[in-house]
Amino acid sequence: MRRNRNDQEASLRAPVSPLVPRLLPSRPRAAVLLLHGGREAGLTPSRPWHPAALRMRPFHRAIEAALPHGDVVLARVRYRLRGWNDVRADPVPDTLDALNRLAELAGPVPTVLVGHSMGARAALHAAGHPQVCAVLALAPWWPSGEPVHQLAGRQVVVLHGEDDRVTSPVDSADCVRRARGTAAGAAMGVVRDGDHAMLRRHRFWHRTAASVVAHLLDPTAHPDPLPRQCYGPGDAPLL
């Protein structure tokens, strides 16, 4: 049946959900929410065909393969805009809204946020949401002085490329050090020869991220892929 013009116009005005599920089991035990990168500033709409969004697709596939029982929600956050935009921090309300939608769909399941670059910054800021149990940050954009109090009781793991020229491994390491006084656990590894786009040694990035997520959700069944030095007070080891 054809919709009338008023119905079509209402549909166009309807808000678009910030939660985009890839896998939605009927009785999930946990969830993984992926957040792609973006720009420091940008008020144009974010689109799924932008390179930053496309770059996360292999991580979706790797994480899904690492969780073969089909009992974990796998979804991504849809941003309204491409940029962080200074104090507006536009991806953060999008992420919090997505987490609220996730809670409505799946219930209060433990959720791992997996963010790249700007997405990792949004994940850090949203980590205090009651759904969140852990954050995996990939080449995060964490400027000096980012807050860490919201990581209380959460796990945080950082993977940063040795040759990243876009975001700073030094800033990431500082944030991890400060988080150790708050978080349930904090670790960082430096990917040898890794770049910001995670294209060099891409299979290592995908495989390691998926293994970390599986371990965070079920440490008994999935051993930690990171060496113990990643959790220590010294410099993050090369992986």
What does it look like?
The protein is α/β, with parallel strands linked by helices and 239 residues long. It is 31% helix and 18% strand. The chain is built from 7 helices and 7 strands, in the order αββααβαβαββαβα. The protein has helices spanning 5-13, 51-54, 57-66, 91-106, 118-126, 169-179, 202-217; strands spanning 19-23, 30-35, 72-77, 111-116, 132-138, 155-161, 185-191. A 7-stranded mixed β-sheet has the order 1-3-2-4-5-6-7, sandwiched between helices. Helix 5 (118-126) links the parallel strand 4 (111-116) and strand 5. Helix 3 (57-66) packs across helix 7 (202-217) and helix 4 crosses helix 5. Residues 1-14 have low confidence and may be disordered.
In DSSP terms, counting alpha (H) and pi (I) runs of 4 or more, how many helices?
Answer: 7
In round numbers, the mean pLDDT is 93
Going by helix content, strand content and strand pairing, the class is: alpha/beta
How far apart are the first and last residues' alpha carbons, in Å? 58 Å
